[in-house]
DNA repair protein RadC
Amino acid sequence: MTLQSLPLDARPREKLLARGPAALSDTELLALLLRTGLAGKGVLALAQELVDAFGGLAGLLDAGPADLKRIKGLGGPAKRAELLAVLELARRAMAQQLRTREVFGSPDAVKHFLQLHLARHAHEVFAVMFLDAQNRLLELEILFRGTLTQTSVYPREIVVRALAHHAASVVLAHNHPSGTVQPSRADEALTQTLKAALGLVDVRVLDHVIVAPGGALSMAEKGLL
């Protein structure tokens, strides 16, 4: 079904202008971004295929350029570029919000923010959110890459960066490309090591968040901190 074949008040653009963006489904909003489908597949069908392929909008936001290129109909650079631009706008908007308000006024926002930044990586990365005395975001830095163990994440480097940012506290974060967000014994041991090292310079560890495509876990919420 093409957009032109729909009744005027059911077309996504007209529906959005008349009733507001909240009235549109995920598929309809995505169809507005895509604008056109491909031969034999309308834009609504293509949008639904994207939603299904990535397990919803959250999974789509985790997608990188290579992931999008595998979807037939997104082989050209223009549509991929537009979707990636929307993803980057979402990251920047959330970072701006976290810089102007207390991070832990909305714990879910922190997890979503970290998912947007870390879940798309195909390899493990370790990042730190540096926070001021009001728990507002100063900076997010990816400090280590590769297979993460207690010996490949260096407490001294994290302490140095915390002091450079004049951070009062931090949120540790890393991704599990395998898809599970359950912390390992090594994750728990590493958290305690970093907590002790940062405590020596009066920097608190508020949380350690593990992210994966489609999910995130707060070790603080699980009582593991």
Summary: The longest helix spans residues 77-100. The longest strand covers residues 137-145.
